[in-house]
Amino acid sequence: MYNSKIIGLGKYVPENVVTNNDLSKLMDTNDAWIQERTGIKERRWIDKNSEDTSAVMGAKAARIAIERSGLTKDDIDFIVFATLSPDYYFPGCGVQIQDMLEMPTIGALDVRNQCSGFIYAVSVADQFIKTGMYKNILVIGAEYHSGGLDKTTRGRSVSVIFGDGAGAAVMSRAENTDHGILSSHLHSEGKYAKELIVEGPNIKHWVPQMLEENNPDDISYFPYMNGQHVFKHAVVRFSEAIMEGLAANKLEKEAIDMLIPHQANLRISQFIQKKFGLRDNQVFNNIQKYGNTTAASVIIALTEAWEAGKIKDNDLVVLAAFGSGFTWGSVVIRW
Ligand code: UT7
Fold this sequence. Notes:
By secondary structure, the chain is an alpha/beta fold. It is 33% helix and 23% strand. It has 11 helices and 13 strands. The strands form 4 sheets. The chain has a 5-stranded mixed beta sheet with strand order 1-7-6-4-5, sandwiched between helices. It has a 4-stranded mixed beta sheet with strand order 8-13-12-11, sandwiched between helices. It has a two-stranded antiparallel sheet with strand order 2-3. α3 crosses α4. The longest helix is centred in the C-terminal third of the chain and has 22 residues, at 227-248. Residues 29, 33-34, 37-38, 115, 156-157, 160-161, 227-228, 230-231, 234, 264-265, 268, 292, 323 line the site of oxa(dethia)-CoA.
């Protein structure tokens, strides 16, 4: 058995900054409500004239991660791409990356686990590297939310939260088995699938039917979230996933050097920080700038924390996420 470690990180966010005040021109909302309930000050939304998509942003982040890893695109053996907003219904974004980066005809896997997507993707890559099947894997989380949000007052409880962006990591076989990915834990509870969902079109209510009905009140193709229900589960599952990761490695919460929580809501991160007794410099948050970028949020935050010099060799880094599915999980890394 081998160990895997992260050897390159990159991120890309669209240039277009949308502030809370900008949103108040589109819908009945205001800066005070958004900041108080979520901590978000602004987010990036792809400009409609831009060529950015989930795959395009993912490719931009990936190029940076590969360059920083010291490898070349030809050294990559496999691609794992996590998103809930793929460019096409099918095929997934993974194959687009293989093409955009002009890589050899390596395998490309798409992960559909929403906010936990990057955690699931890292876990999958880790298993492939552990068994020796692949040596270098490109793992991407990217999200183009702004194209699919209801930007009217009707959709305000969801649309003010989500932002666009992408991050990428190169994972590689580690020579030192004490370092790298120490563990990953993944969970789901499908009975809550409809509490955070984009329901339409679906296989029983497909596009021709929707066009025929031409119903302006059909909001099934916009994201729906039962916010308070999701919030209550999030704080419990985040804690469980972190505890599970620590316990599996026989570590106490005091061992955490840096917690990178999925950026769902600053209040959730603060709750977890308090519960685990962590100082401000032990938890990294950037939801204030980017909103919730679902599958991209953990990898954008990890990249920014690393770029800012907040993650050093030998640090214990914990990644954790919870979201639609419900799905949740954690990854524990000895950097
Ligand atoms: O990433 C996946 C995981 N996601 C999460 O973990 C998110 C979890 N949930 C949350 O973060 C919070 O539930 C939200 C931020 C989504 C919502 O906050 P909340 O405190 O639960 O607010 P609420 O939905 O209960 O709404 C409270 C009030 C309502 O008005 P009334 O009925 O009290 O008159 C809403 O209509 O706030 C109103 N409201 C807004 N007002 C201004 C809802 N959205 C907005 C808005 N601006 N954007």
